[in-house]
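User: Fold this one for me? It's BBG30-like protein.
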Amino acid sequence: MRFSLKYLARRLYIKRHRFWNTYMSDEVQSKRADDTIINFPILSPADIDYEYVYAYVKDWVTKKYTDDLDIMINKIGNDDYYCETKRGSLMNNILDRIHEDYREIFLGNLEKRVVDKNPEVLLLRGLGMLAP
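Assistant: Here's what I get for BBG30-like protein.
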């Protein structure tokens, strides 16, 4: 079966509640209260729209896609992708795999604040009291 990446995103968008359930899971929500994370997105169910899902699929292609999966994805031009499933593979299995990787990619996109272990040394160096 041949299709575009937009078709794949549309199929994932139909089951967007799975993205929401992953977002609301205890593992992901525990990161929300973590003070060291600086870019945790506060989402509502309406925020998981087609554009969000399509952006995730493009992110998944760059981070998790490998040639040994049941789907072949080829980049055409700057922003277009051509997809083809391998013979005998089921689309639902491919969609399940992409849904399962959402948690890992979401958590991987979070940035932590760099905490200096010894702020006094930096302050003293800034004042010229300590030799570098």
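One thing worth pointing out: The two ends are 63 Å apart (CA to CA).
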